[in-house]
Each structure stands twice: as structure tokens, then as C-alpha cells.
Amino acid sequence: MTRKTRRLWIVIACLACISSAAALTLRAFSSNIVFFMAPSQVKAHPPAPDRTIRLGGMVVAGSLHRITEHDAPVNSFNVTDGQASVEVHYTGILPDLFREGQSVVALGTVQKDGGFTASEVLAKHDETYMPKEVAEELKRTGKWDPRFGKAPDAASWDTMTAKKTGG
Amino acid sequence: MFGPEQGHFALALACVLALIQFVVPLWGAHKRNARLVAMAPFLAVSQLFALAISFFSLIICAVRDDFSVQNVAANSAASKPLLYKITGVWGNHEGSVLLWTLILGVCGAAVSTFGRNLPDILRGRVLAVLGGVSAGFQLFCLLTSDPFDRVFPAPMDGQGMNPLLQDPGLAFHPPILYTGYVGFAVPFAFAVAALLEGRVDAAWGRWVRPWAVAAWCFLTCGIALGSWWSYYVLGWGGYWFWDPVENASLIPWLTGTALVHSAIVVEKREGLKIWTVLLAIATFSFSLSGTFLVRSGILNSVHAFANDPARGVFILALLALVIGGSLALFAWRAPSLTSGGLFSPVSREGSLVLNNILLCSICAVVVTGTMYPPFMQLLAGRTISVGKPFFDAATIPLTIPLLLAMGVGTALPWKRAQLARTFSHLFVAAILAAIGLVLCFWKFSGALPIACGALAIWVMAASVTDVLRRIGLGHSSRSEMLARAKSLPRSSWGAALAHIGAGITVLGLCGMSGAQHAIVEIHVGETRSLAGDDWTLVNVHDYAGPNYRAMQADIAVRHNGKLVTMLHPEKRDFTTQNQTTTEVAIHTNFITDLYGVVGDRHGTGADATYVLRLHKNPLAPWMWLGGLVMAIGGAFSLSDRRLRVGAPKRSAARTMAKA
């Protein structure tokens, strides 16, 4: 075995591995990327029912209902970005940090009736009590600009959203 | 003594010492001035001393509840238990940077103490590189994230610590993980020193490998501990979430594993030298960017820059300097390194090359999956995320050939293998793997878990039969076998153990893919069945803890009417922080975990219902047990006699393994 043929073998092995890794990555990307959407975006362009998305916004105060279906607790609540609200159904235990009037991110699919079935609800947040996607979305919709002070607190959000969805 | 000002001064002193440690030995090595080079070990030890004083001062501030120190006021509280006052020191950004530099100081001092058999010039250069990195991060600490900042007026009490973090597992997770991250600075320094010297030989491989193995052991333990913590504290029944912080530790682990293997080829056959040097640089670069870019949230969210632009710019400049500088040096000097011995593709070297290629491909996939979302956000403004489905789909198909190669590799001889002979060596292992495949068909469901489970058994069987063959099972007497077992190098035992550990972890992961869970809402006294067990909610009662109120449920688990265990999950309400935490109850028999969580109570009195989350997790403990076995294997190979040859009195390897 000469140095040249050895190098050839190594190069072939490298190319094979790298190309299969790239192929796997691209294939996995095309079916598994999860887009973040705000309720108004979901209302405007509903994604396909088999497409998993992350829905983020504020939980509308007073919207949390709970029923028991086949022994399993089903939570329903509305998520809003101040422009539109989407009803979320979630079977399971809501996270410890879940609060009405605070931000939430739900992973799941949009149903045909416009409701959202969540497989996972996240209420992880930083010191502003807001996940970064939700903060971005609030900035985008013009509800909050970090240059002009702190994020609106939960109480003011309650009134903002209650007007929108209650009316 | 040991006030915040003294700590601050000690940190500044350490920074100056580190700068001298960077400049003087390099200059001395350049001018061939032995006296300047010989200053390096002394400087490294005194730098560690200064850093230790600084770190100890911060601990004293936290223990004494000195809330005039900004860092203590923000992260501690008078009512916090003493253990968490101490461990809380490294639970925040400033403290963790200080811990990071302290561990780097320990590494420098360890090289100067245990590296006495190194050539003076090489040791001087290694210490100089470590000093340079140290100086950079101490400057970062001093200028942008000073843990000793005072506040005026001092608040009466601190803001307290997240109750979720008040956990012994998490208290010791960061130091172990950081030791793993920072430990890879030593192979990095060796690589840079070798590039400066323009020479990499078998001796270099022998010096650098124990440091890489030691760092790898700590990183393995740190990752396993972190995963275990999220399993028993977060209460979702999950063990790995593929989030950027976790990936940041997995990426250097993958390249570090590749480094540990490729350094064997340098040591035994003087091959793959340039590649090993590049891996050493890459591993530390990934450790650095992992800890600082991902953890500080710079890449995750754009406005982390806005919070503290100075911090972000400083850290980016520092990373660019360390990583860019070493890569530029590599590009300049690497072509002058000569390549080593020849080998055929089917040989031990060939299998190690394949191992490296596969590990690096997996690493590339993980890097892509981790970096793509933030870059998409920066460039296209779209918020996307990739999670478990992506990483599973992209990494598992690459893991399968890796596991296959792991079994074959150890059975191959160096230089050139005869296929027929290798197959005869692997015959028993193949039969065991076939039996394993049948077992997996019976126990697991899904094609990938079955395939991976059988391959894990293949890896373990191949490691065991390889050791048995080497000690001459079947054709020698018992005493002869014992003698052979004793003379078999510890590194071989270590490698076999580490491979068995990897197999155990993979089996655990396969088992967990068949985990079952149910979320139920029931009254006290009701029973639900899950996966063949009957779970009865016997009682729920409230009680008051030291700084929380708790609701505790008693759940009886019965199998065919026989009581298996009582689980006591809790939900705790920390009123001062307005936070609830979940205390998971886990019963394990090391084959299956029964895992219970209690959620909300709805209704009152006898009519009240309780939400319960019940999990049955087969083979869950094996995931972390395997990590521990891998680390023990690494430590075992560190105690190899070969590494002690030439070392005066106490061995570097053994003390490192203990540390």
C-alpha cells in the first residue's frame, strides 16, 4: 500500500461520510424544521395540519378552562399577540411557570377548525418574563419597543388582550 | 483578609502573572534562553495561588452574606442554606467565569508539577499558551464581568436563587463540566507548542494523550450528570432536550473523543499527526465557543448584545484571537510536519481513521443543527427551531456504522490485518450480537432501537471477547491467564471498559425509546394501569417545609396485585420567589424506572381530583451508568504504567485520575 493509495482511501471515506452527513442533515431539515408563528400569522396563513409549529404569545387572562376527557386533563386557553388569538388545547400538566397574562410557547399543530393542539407547552422565561420569540413578536407588532422602556407587565397585558378578544 | 477588594486585587495580580507567563517563556524559547523558559512553572503556580485567593474571597463574601457585593446581592439570600451559598458562587455569569479561569489555573499548575519529564522548551511553550488564554479570560472577568463589584447602598437581603437550582446534583455539575471544557486547553496548548516547535512525534503523542483523556473523563461525567439532573429535577421524564446549551457540551465531547483516539495513532505509529493537532485545536475552540457564545446567549438572541455590548464584543474578539490565531498558526506550520508510517485501510489505524471521520461527521451535523436557527434569525429574520426529530433523523444513521466499527476496530492489529483471522476473532461476538438482536426484537419496538440495541451488544461483546482472547482464554492454564491479565496494559483494560460503557449508554437510550407514560386526573383511592402496573393514588397531604409549602402524594404501584413500591412525589410552592417546583419520585431497580409526578389539585374536600403524570422508563439508569463506566475506563487507562515511565516519584497520570 503506497502513500498515494492510502490517501485515496481516506479521501473516499471522508467524502462518503461527509456527503451522507450532508444528505441526512438536509433531509432532516426539510421535514423537521419548526417555525415560530404568532397567533396573527397563524390566522393569516394557517400552516398545513401535519406541520409542527411553535406558537408563541401571551395567555389571555381568564381564558384557561380545564375539562377531563378519558381520565386525562385537557387544558384550553387562548394565546394572543394583541392582534389575534388562537385557542390552544393541551393534554397534560401545565408547566410550573405557566400563568395567565404571561407569555407562553406551545409546540403542536393547527387543526382544521383553527384551534391548536399542543404536544408541549413551555413557559421558560428570562428575567423579563418573556421568551425571546414572544418579545420579538411584540416588538414586531409594535406593542413593545425595548428602546422605550421595560416590557409591559402582565396586568396591562390583561386589559389589552381582554379588550381585543372579549369584544 | 479575603474581602471583596482583596479578591479583586488577587484577580488583577493573577492577570498580570498570566500575562508574564504568556510573554516571557515564549521569548525565552525564541532566544533559547533557558532561564527565562524555566520561569514558567513558577509563574503558573503563583498564578494559581492568586486565583485561589480571589475565588476563596468570593466564597467568603457569599458565606458572610455581604450584600454590598453586587454579585452576592443578586444571587444569594440570607435564608439560603450554606451549601447553596457556596455553590451559588458559580451559579451565575460572573462567578462561573471566575471558576473557569481558576480551573485553567489549576491546569497550568498541574502541567508544571506533573510535567517534569517534558523537555523544558516544550513545557515552557505549553505553559505560555495556557497563560495567554488565562490572561485573556481574566481580563474579560475584570473589565466586563467583575464578580467583586460593590453596590451602594447595600440591600438588606439578596434577591435569592432560583429554587430549581438549589439541588446537590446541579451544585457539582458545573465544576465537573468546566473541568472537562477547560481540560482541553492543555491538549490545545500542546498542539500550539508543537506547531511553534515544528515537530510532532510519538513522545508528543504520549505526553498529550493523558491530558486529553483526563479532560474527556470529566466532560463525560459532566454531561451525564447534567442529563441526570434534567431527568430527575425538571419532571418531564426527558433526559436530553437537544437545546443549544446541551449541544455545546456534546460538540467538544465528540471531537474530544476523536482526539483521544487519533492521539493513539500518533503515539503508536506516528501517523495522523497533522490531523491530531487540528483536532486538539478544534476541541478547545468548540469548548470555548460552547461555554461563552451559547451560554451567554449571544448567538441565541440578538439582543444579548444590546444588554451588554461590551461583554459581547470582548468575548467575540477574544474567541477570534484564540481560535483564529491558532488556526492561522496551524495553516502556516502544519505543512512542515512530516507524515508518519504507512498502513492498509483494513488495520487498527484504518479503523481509528474511520472512527474519527464518523465522529466528526456527527459533530458537523450537531453543529449545523445548533447554529442554523440563530444564523437564520440573524440573516433572514425568521425564527425557527430544530429539535429532537431533526437530531434523531440526522445523527442515528451515522451512529450505526460507528458502533459497527467500534466492535471491529479493537480486534484489528496495527498496520495490516488479515480479514479471515479478524473474522475468526469476532465470531463469538457476532453470535452474541445475533442473540442480542433476537432479544431486542422481543424487548424494543421500532427498527432503529432494535438495530442500535443489537449493535450496542455487539460492541460490548467484541470488547469482552477481545480482552478474553488476549489473556488467552481457552488455550492456557488458569495461572497463565491470570499472569497475562496482569501484564495486559491498563490502557487496554481502560479501552475495553470505555467501549462497554458506550454500549451500556446506547442500550439505555434504546430502552428509553420504549418509555411509556400517562397523564391522568383521578380522585384519592382510584387506580389506573400503565404498562402492566396498577398505580393507586392512596393519599395526598400538605405540609410546610423550611421556605416552602408542599403537597405530597402517596402513590402505590402494584404489579399483579403485589406491591412494588410507594412513590411520594411533591409539588412545592416557594412563596417568596412566587415559584413552584416539582419533586419527582423515582423508584428504580436498575432495569426499569417508575417515575411519578403530581400536578395540580382541582376541587376541594373529598371531591378533589389530582393530576398525575406516570412514567415507566425501561433501562433509564443505564444511560448515566454507561457514562460513568466510560469515565472509569478513561481513568483506568490514565493509570497505565507506560505513562509513568520517566516520571519522578508520584505519577502524573495517577494523581490526575484521582483529582
From TrEMBL, chain A:
GO terms for biological process: cytochrome complex assembly; protein-heme linkage. It is a single-pass type II membrane protein. Residues 29-167 are extracellular. Keywords: Cell membrane, Cytochrome c-type biogenesis, Heme, Iron, Membrane, Metal-binding, Signal, Signal-anchor, Transmembrane, Transmembrane helix. Residues 1-7 are cytoplasmic. Heme binds at residues 125, 129. It holds the Pfam family CcmE. Residues 1-23 form the signal peptide. One of its GO terms (cellular component) is plasma membrane. It is found in: Cell membrane; Membrane. Its main location: membrane. GO terms for molecular function: heme binding; metal ion binding. Residues 145-167 are annotated as: Disordered. Heme chaperone required for the biogenesis of c-type cytochromes. Transiently binds heme delivered by CcmC and transfers the heme to apo-cytochromes in a process facilitated by CcmF and CcmH. HAMAP family: CcmE. Belongs to the CcmE/CycJ family. This is Cytochrome c-type biogenesis protein CcmE.
UniProtKB/TrEMBL annotation, chain B:
It comes from the Bacteria. It is found in: Cell inner membrane. It holds the Pfam family Cytochrom_C_asm. It is a multi-pass membrane protein. The keyword Membrane applies. GO terms for biological process: cytochrome complex assembly. Residues 316-641 form the Cytochrome c-type biogenesis protein CcmF C-terminal domain. Keywords: Cell inner membrane, Cell membrane, Cytochrome c-type biogenesis, Membrane, Transmembrane, Transmembrane helix. Residues 90-296 form the Cytochrome c assembly protein domain. One of its GO terms (molecular function) is heme binding. GO terms for cellular component: plasma membrane. InterPro entries: CcmF_C, Cyt_c_assembly, Cyt_c_biogenesis, Cyt_c_biogenesis_CcmF. The chain crosses the membrane at residues 6-29, 36-60, 97-114, 126-145, 176-196, 208-230, 250-267, 274-293, 313-332, 353-373, 393-414, 426-444, 450-472, 493-515, 619-639. Required for the biogenesis of c-type cytochromes. Possible subunit of a heme lyase. Belongs to the CcmF/CycK/Ccl1/NrfE/CcsA family. This is Cytochrome c-type biogenesis protein CycK.
